[in-house]
Write a structure and sequence with these properties.
There is one protein chain. The protein has 247 residues and is of the alpha+beta class. The chain has two helices and twelve strands; from the N terminus they run αββββββββββββα. The strands form three sheets. The protein has a five-stranded antiparallel sheet, with no helix packed on it. A five-stranded mixed sheet has the order 2-8-7-4-5, with no helix packed on it. Strand 4 and strand 5 form a beta hairpin.
């Protein structure tokens, strides 16, 4: 009569649970990465030295001109851009206002390059304002967003940064780029950068600083899911080898 092998089924059950948990985490992570957030107070604004820069970094020291870039806003959103002179080189004097259409699509991609919603390049007129010797001009950017399709129909985003002085005949918006890749360039008068100023570091606080991204970061969840899948597969292979060697 052949011998009957007996043993605990617990290792097999544990391996199955591990594989299922890993697969579930992987699916949840992928869904969180792909799906847009519910409409309302989404999006982030970045200051860039150069146009056509879709990286979601912020450069608090820029030259003349500079670019404002938008990421992760909701479909239908429109931004009113307001620049004011900021202490210590200004006392709230209005420098420029503008309107930018940032709602060509939904907020999929969030604050990543995939969430790029457009950019606009600006030159500011600092006539009558004395620059700081090392830093240049301190500027506050207020982006007032109108979001008709969301639960938060009006909200604001802020940035504070330093800009280099310019020799300018007039304040000029030089170009606008949308997610589709089209660029519109407008020239009015002439603008030349002044001599470069030294200095480095982050801009001062007071309503500015980095803006939080309201989306979810699914990368840790996806990594955990892959790790659990790998652990479960390795355990299953080891169990089968052990069973064959004991046969």
């Amino acid at each position: 009569m052949p011998a009957v092998r007996t043993g605990s089924r617990f290792p097999l059950i544990a391996m199955a649970v591990t594989l299922m948990a890993g697969l579930l985490l992987l699916l949840l992570g992928n869904t969180a990465f792909a799906a847009p957030n519910p409409p309302g107070n989404n999006g982030t604004v970045k200051i860039h030295k150069m146009p056509l820069d879709s990286n979601p970094w912020n450069q608090p020291h820029v030259g003349c001109p500079f670019t404002v870039t938008f990421f992760g806003f909701d479909e239908g959103d429109v931004a009113t851009v307001i620049f004011t002179a900021w202490a210590p080189t200004g006392k709230g004097a209005l420098l420029l206002t503008d309107t930018v259409d940032i709602g060509a699509d939904d907020n999929s991609g969030g604050g990543s390059p995939a969430g790029f919603d457009g950019e606009k390049t600006y030159t500011l007129d600092f006539d009558g304002i004395v620059p700081q010797e090392q830093q240049g001009f301190h500027v506050k950017l207020n982006v007032a967003v109108t979001s008709p399709g969301s639960k938060t129909p009006k909200f604001n985003k802020y940035k504070v940064f330093w800009a280099q002085p310019c020799v300018s005949e007039s304040s000029t918006t030089t170009s606008t780029t949308t997610p589709g890749g089209s660029t519109t360039t407008t020239e009015s008068g002439g603008t030349l950068p002044a001599s470069s100023l030294g200095g480095s570091g982050s801009s001062a606080a007071g309503g500015g600083g980095a803006l939080p991204f309201s989306g979810s970061n699914s990368l840790p969840m996806m990594v955990a899911g892959l790790a659990l899948l790998a652990l479960g597969a390795a355990s299953l292979v080891a169990s089968r080898r052990h069973s064959k060697s004991g046969a």
